[in-house]
Each structure stands twice: as C-alpha cells, then as structure tokens.
Amino acid sequence: QEVPFTGDIMTASELLKRLHYDMMHDMDTIIESALSNKRFEVYYQPIYSVKEKKFHSAEALIRLKDEKYGFISPEVFIPVAEKSGAIHKIGDFVLEQVCAFIASDEYKKLGMSYIEVNLSVVQCMQPKLANHIMEILTRYGVRPEQLNLEITETAASISQQALEDNIKDLTNMGMKFSLDDFGTGYSNMQRIVKLPFDIIKLDRTFTELYDNPKLGIVLTNAINMIKAMKMKIVVEGVETEEMLKLFSELECEYIQGYYFSKPIPREEFVKFIQASS
Ligand code: C2E
Ligand code: MG
Ligand code: MG
Ligand code: MG
Fold first, then answer.
1. Is the minimum distance from the CB of 204 to ligand 1 under 6 angstroms?
2. In this protein, which residues make up the domain named EAL (predicted)?
3. Residues 83-108, mean pLDDT to the nearest whole number
4. Measured between alpha carbons, how far is residue 153 from residues 193, 237, 241 in Å?
5. How far is 252 from 234, CA to CA, in rounded Å?
C-alpha cells in the first residue's frame, strides 16, 4: 500500500514502507531490465550425501542484483514474475545456465550426480513443457538424469491435468523430481503419493524446530513414513553440527544448509567442491 507524503519528516518505518512500495511498484521493470541486461545470476548450494560422505549434488538458486535496491530475494520477484509471465524467460535462463555448467569440462571433473532446478508452478502448467525442456537439454548435450526438478508442495497439490501430464512426460524421458517445501503447505499425501517423486525436501521452517518436543515427533514420523515409501530425503536449513548429527542419525540421505555452505557463484562452487574432495 502506498505511503502518502504528509509533509512531515518520515519515521524510519514509514521510509522503509515507502521504499518497499517503490520497489514493488518497479518490480516488473526491474525484472525486464535484468533479463535484457543479463543481471540475473545462478548460484549453487552444495548438497551433502551422508552415505557417500561427499557433496553429491547441488541446488541452483537464482540471484538478482539490482542497481538501486541491491540483492532482491527470489521470494520477492518470483511471484511477480509468475503474474507477469516473465517466469518463463527466467526459468529458461536458469535451465540454460545450469545446462551450460553441466556441459563444461570443469563440472565433469567434480563427480556430481545431478543439479536440482526449481520449477515454478506456472512452468509446470505450460503446455508441452517436456518437449521444451528436452530441447534445451539436447542443445547442450545434457542427459535428463543429470538434472533433478524441484516442485513445491503447493504446486504439487494443484489437481491439474497439464501438471500431471508434464510430470509424466518428463519422467518417461528419464527426469527425476523432488518435492520442495515439504511441511509448509497442506502436505496433501494423496497428491504426493500420486506424483512420482524421487526425493522429498524437508523445509527449513520445519527442520529448524527439531528441538520442539511435539514437532520433533512429527518430524521423526514424517522421515520414517517417507523412507517406508522408498523416497529419499533432503534436509534443508541445516546450520549446526547438532542438526547434522541428529538428521544423520535419523538416516536422512542428504543434507543442505549453511553448515556446509550458502548458495555461491559457479566459480566459487567449483573451488569449494575441489577443495572438499
Ligand atoms: P527453496 O527452493 O526452498 O530454496 C531453499 C532456500 O533456503 C534458498 O533461499 C536457500 O538460500 C535457503 N537456505 C538454504 N540453506 C539454508 C540455511 O541453512 N539457513 C537459511 N536461513 N536458509 C537456507 P533463496 O535462494 O533465497 O530462495 C528462496 C526461494 O525462491 C526458493 O526456495 C525457491 O522457492 C525460490 N527460487 C529460487 N531460485 C529459483 C528459481 O531459479 N526458479 C524458481 N521458480 N524459484 C526459485
Ligand atoms: Mg528448491
Ligand atoms: Mg526448498
Ligand atoms: Mg523453500
């Protein structure tokens, strides 16, 4: 909501509200200009495999550095891009960057299993998404097994033929899927079981409450349930040794979080993995 100028000196909180209003007002322009001026960048956050005792994959996360507002969180601009339709261009940009990385010689030496890429709910509904994605992969000589697509729990809960067809087509082509943000939406088990997820990602807002007595019980049982359904688990938001120890003991396969590394630019990521092996 717009904060009107009253002629009085603004308080710090009024000033912040105005800045936020201005930024949201400019967001479509910020996104378009970032697309044409190549100001989007893809960062990578390593994911640790407890069993293999090494970083076996990474999640690609988009970054936008605006000249005026600095780094703007994807949680702010992705919803705007979903409304305007710019998400299709952003999604393609991320896929192309990731495929170019996977196709590079430096990547091949890292011994990664795959890179996880977030798909927006809008992309999931796009007609012929599978062909579109395969066209990009083919152009870079990347195989479907070298990627893993993340779909949020909220998107997966939408009962839409287009979404189901896309996931089915891509699965038939050899693509694997992760369910992102588990524990934040309705955790609609009917939908989750119906769609072919290989991995479930436990959301940070869920895992960071591990020491809450009741939530601890929910978490332990959710982990056992997911394992019994033969799906693998990525624990998000692991920031401490204590959390790493706990979730390793609960036999979760994969750990992601600031404890190991924040999302970092491609060159830094390559150095990080080289130094760790
Ligand atoms: P997400 O897919 O659940 O990604 C995980 C988020 O948690 C990332 O935030 C990551 O930086 C953050 N994170 C990871 N480990 C820790 C930790 O130990 N502590 C804390 N405090 N945070 C941690 P980020 O990069 O700001 O992304 C936020 C969300 O924006 C993502 O959540 C995803 O939903 C969306 N997003 C990011 N990149 C893309 C993209 O390329 N395409 C689409 N469609 N969405 C994206
Ligand atoms: Mg994700
Ligand atoms: Mg996530
Ligand atoms: Mg999330």
1. yes
2. 24-277
3. 97
4. 12, 17, 28
5. 7
